[in-house]
Amino acid sequence: MPYFYYDTWAKYMSYWHSHPQFHSKGHYYGIKKFVLQDKAMMIHHIVLPNAIFPVIIFFRKGIGDYFVGLFYQVELAVPFIAVRNVLVQYAQFSNISVWRVPSAIPIKCNIGCLSILVLQIYWLCLMVRGAFRVFYKIYQRRFTD
């Protein structure tokens, strides 16, 4: 859940620094413009963690596993969406093709990104292996009884 709050703050700070004309008017004006610019993102980042997530996790009373799975499947795409956004922003800033960004950034950035990606893939493999074990046990019980 902290991701939603961090992501909102990071997006706002990026917006704030990319619009220096708002600096003289203060953060309140900047926040107002930021919220009005992207209402869907704000709804997603405020309503989801504060309303929908507690309903999905705590108040479902053991039902709705399909929807919990969908929720996590959507979250699975987040790192890849973030990487795409970073690559596109760097490409626009440097006036180069998105495909040339990995060779244009410092090697320490590539190593850092690769390290994070390896951890994400490791975590994904653990989740898939755990899901396979659970579903395989269910499959075995169904056909051995």
TrEMBL record:
It is found in: Membrane. It comes from the Eukaryota. PROSITE patterns: TLC. Keywords: Membrane, Transmembrane, Transmembrane helix. It is a multi-pass membrane protein. The chain crosses the membrane at residues 42-59, 66-87, 107-132. Residues 1-145 form the TLC domain. This is TLC domain-containing protein.
